[in-house]
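Per reviewer request, we include the raw input and output of the structure prediction for the construct analysed in the revised manuscript.
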Amino acid sequence: MKTEFENDWRTKSIESLEQTFWPDIRYDEESYLVGTCHKLRKKPLQEFKTEDLRIMIGQDIGTKYLMPLAIEKLTADLFAEGDFYPGDLLKMVLHIDKKFWLDNPAFWDSIANLISGRQEEIESHGISTDLFYTVGPKSSR
């Protein structure tokens, strides 16, 4: 998928791409999730693993920059697995907020194309596509 980002966007962190910098925190005083999100915002995107994508997309942090990476992972393996179960990245992607899909219809189209005709297989993994189809720019199957 072609992106509108600069050529070296994968070498940059979410912080660098968004030009927003969160204050330093004491990781021992924060929850695992908060600490992990802070750390991942500083990590170059080219180093993101499936679990990193799952976490950050699930928290809607840097989703605009992470979606091309998620689409690549899901294209290679629709049921790419983070730390929980096969398909946990797909489940997070399918549950992204409606505003993101409305603002980024090309990403919605890419995901819709990936899951098209695989409904039964997706459901056999305990993943629902209902929300995705009701919030997308086309809102149809």
